[in-house]
Amino acid sequence: MDDATNYVVSKPVGVGALITPWNLPLYLLSWKVAPAIGMGNTVVCKPSELTPMTADLLMRVIDEVGLPPGVVNLVHGDGAGAGAPLVAHPEVRLVSFTGGTSTGERVAASAAPAFKKLSLELGGKNASIVFADCDMGKTVPGVVRAGFLNQGQVCLCGSRILIEDSAYEEFRDRFIEEVEGMRVGDPSDVSTDLGALISEQHREKVLGYVDLAREEGGRVLTGGSPCLPSGFENGFWMAPTVIEGLDIGSRCATEEIFGPVVTLHRFSSEEEAVAMANNTRYGLAGSVWTSDLERGRRVCEAMDTGMAWVNAWLHRDLRVPFGGVKDSGVGREGGRWSLGFFSEPMNVCVKHE
Amino acid sequence: MASEAVLDLMNYIGGEFVGHSTGKWLDVLEPSTGLGFARVPLSGQEDVGAAVEAAHSAGSDWGSLSHAERSAWLDRIADALEERHEEIAALESRDTGKPISLARAIDAERSVANFRFFAGLVGSTGRSCSRWTMPPITSSASQWALAR
Questions:
Q1: Does ipTM surpass 0.95 in this model?
Q2: Mind listing the domains of chain A with CATH numbers?
Q3: How far apart are the first and last CA of chain A?
Q4: Distance separating alpha carbons of residues A89 and B43, to the nearest angstrom
Q5: Which of A312, A292, A327 minimizes the C-alpha distance to A125?
Q6: If you measure CA to CA, which chain B residue comes closest to A338?
Q7: Nearest CA in chain A to B116
Q8: Binary contact (A42, B55; C-beta < 8 A)
């Protein structure tokens, strides 16, 4: 077709609903607000009612700099009272939701029949795959970080640790030592490694999974109970917990716990490791620890996830796509994927005379 | 700590901090102590409607700015957030129970980075992002697609 010129106009979608969770509040809100308004949309934010403080701070900053009124709005509240009517509002044309998979189902059920643009970043049950040829000195702290960062309350956390048979005992023992060396306590102390869980209710849910693990035949190697740092006895604390001996298909090894609980499992071949990693409804992320980078690449690509790392975890470049497959979500954000999600490309074709 | 005044948060709608319609509140607890230190509005449909209406009204003017102009706004927000780095980290740590080191590295640091990164990316995107003249169509698959 050489008798016409095509071009693409990138248009705003309209009013966007941005719904964010309690684990990384300002990080995830800024991750959505920036590309959304950058591409010309106006937004209504609904942060988690459990952690509204930095969203309030962002509104004060936006007010101070004098952003035109109405470009960014914020409504506080819970999912049923504020989130649901926001997603359902007919003037809302786009919904970006980060949170739990069951809430994500309700968001999708409300938004899809109205053909709203939808991005869902939901739960995960991510594998950290440890091969015997890994650099143990780097792998042990790396896998501990993947398991327990933010008390295990990150959707990307590697909560199922798959270890090659011949290295199982060595890795397990060094891993336990590293976990027990973490300092749990005063969040305002710079030497603290782990803080408190988000709420009493959430801690009860996490502890319930430890009880379930025992019923399912698991052995708790460390942790497994609340811990009460001195001076913080009424907070929502839990000791970092490592469990072995569970079947890879058990509930504790396949359901998202979203707390400081990891399970250890053995594998004897690369194929078995991949099959174990993929044996969950989730498909968000994974990591592979090996000195054979070709194998690392191969195993990563065989995982049914949106993201995977070799010899790293949560090593993030803002230009790359972020999101999951299966029950971990729909769509991608990050870099040009965010710009694509937060805009509508319009093709104009001008016929030459 | 117990005598500290409890802060009541407000919604932000149409450039104003405003009260909510339901009269219902939720205590915001500090996970490390279990103590309340703020109250968050439990807004309802009416508040949501007002916020969506404000966003809708602002859409036309905001959408007609150039990418470069909106990019400059993102940079201004990044600058203002950066000045409050330590305040953000302390508030986030208190509100979520996470260690201050993590709140600094992720919530404070990366939220500024998000605004800066997207300021750069949006600023490099033109309103008409690409123009091209298509090559002559030769494959039958494309012809079929065109014929539909």
A1: yes
A2: 4-122+328-351 (3.40.605.10), 127-310 (3.40.309.10)
A3: 13
A4: 15
A5: A327
A6: B118
A7: A34
A8: yes
| pTM (predicted TM-score) | 0.94
∠ CA(A263), CA(A269), CA(A274), 5° rounding? 60
Q: Can you tell me which residue has the tokens 């993590």?
A: B102
DSSP code per residue over A107-162: HHHHHGGGT-EEEEE----EEEEE-TTS-HHHHHHHHHHHHHGGGG-STT-EEEEE
Residues 6+ apart with CB under 8 A from A296: A288, A289, A290, A310, A311
Q: How many CB atoms lie within 10 A of CB A145?
A: 18
Q: Which DSSP category does A307 fall into?
A: -
Looking at the complex, does the CB of residue A293 fall below 8 Å from at least one CB of chain B? no
Distance CA A47, CA A26 (A): 9
Mark whether A121 is an active-site residue: yes
Evaluate whether B106 touches A24 at the Cβ level (below 8 Å): yes
Q: What is the pLDDT along chain B (148 residues), one digit of tens a residue?
A: 445 668 999 999 999 999 999 999 999 999 999 999 999 999 999 999 999 999 999 999 999 999 999 999 999 999 999 999 999 999 999 999 999 999 999 999 999 999 999 999 999 886 554 445 555 444 444 434 343 3
Q: What is the pLDDT of residues B112-143, one digit of tens each?
A: 999 999 999 999 886 554 445 555 444 444 43
The amino acid occupying position B81 is L
pLDDT, mean of residues A218-228: 95
> At residue A200, what is the residue type?
E
Place of tokens 């509240």: A77
A130 close to B (CB below 8 A) = no
pLDDT at B142: 41
- Residues of chain B contacting A258 with CB distance shorter than 8 Å: none
B92 with A318: Cβ contact below 8 A: no
The phi, psi pair for A282, rounded to 5°, reads: -90, 160
Q: Do B29 and A186 touch (CB under 8 A)?
A: no
d(CA A46, CA A29): 9
